[in-house]
Amino acid sequence: MYIQLNGQVIYYEKHGEGSPVILVHGNQETHKIFDVLIPKLSKKHTIFAIDSRGHGFSSAPAEYHYTDMAEDIAAFAAALELIRPAFYGFSDGGIVGLIAAAKYPALFSALAVSGANLTPSGWKLFSRLSVQLDYLKKKDPLVRLMLKEPHITRAELAKITVPVLVLAGSKDIIRERETRKIAASIPDAVLKILPDENHFSYVVHSPKLFPLLDEFFSAHCY
Questions:
Q1: Can you tell me the distance from the alpha carbon of 88 to that of 115, in angstroms, rounded to the nearest whole number?
Q2: Exposed (0-12), middle (13-18) or buried (19+): which is 141, by Cβ within 10 Å?
Q3: For 112-136, what is each residue's pLDDT tens digit?
Q4: Which residues lie below 8 Å from residue 129, measured CB to CB, with a gap of 6+?
Q5: Rounded to an integer, what is the distance from CA 89 to the centroid of its chain?
Q6: For the chain, first and last CA: distance in Å?
Q7: Cα–Cα distance measured from residue 123 to residue 116, given in angstroms and rounded to the nearest whole number
């Protein structure tokens, strides 16, 4: 399905019944990375799986900013009259969720993020160098986004008032101290570092994410 938000055409899919949950993928991905997760979560929840602006079937803007993507989520919830949906975001999607929850404290009922970072320096050095090399080769504006943004402060995270689950793999491309900083900056956030998992392994086309989100959303979704 398509919806126009903030001057962008956004594609999304809707599955299941129950309390609403919004899913947002990472950079240069689509909602299809959740193909294993959606059938399981949709047994208890109405799932809204979005292609972020410039990804998948959604239209591309002139330039990319995480704050604009966060505004898309707020506008999406308002347009569909979703009452305090839960949110899960992976990587860039996690960044978007943090920004949206900080700016609109009443937007979500619960927030789960994995593999998110607060600034570009939150990446491990080798991974960031790989992204820089990728950008030099392709000049992809989505890759540039990861090198220039986000810039989320601890003060902004402290504004988040909903229950939060912060996830990362022990072998993530994001520095563990960055993940711990996110969790420590959000009141009462729950942190889980998953042993032997990398940035993608427990999320993309994986059944491993479901029990973590199922437990969290079952406790906090309306």
A1: 11
A2: middle
A3: 999 999 999 999 999 999 999 999 9
A4: none
A5: 2
A6: 24
A7: 9
Top CATH class of 2-220 equals: alpha beta
The residue ranges of every structural domain in the chain are 2-220
pTM over 0.90: yes
Closest CA to 89 of 103, 76, 101: 101
CB 85 within 8 A of CB 110: no
Question: Quick one: what percent of the chain has pLDDT higher than 70?
Answer: 100
Per-residue pLDDT reduced to its tens digit, 159-208: 999 999 999 999 999 999 999 999 999 999 999 999 999 999 999 999 99
Provide the 8-state DSSP code for 129: H
Distance separating alpha carbons of residues 5 and 180, to the nearest angstrom: 33
> 207 with 180: CB under 8 angstroms?
no
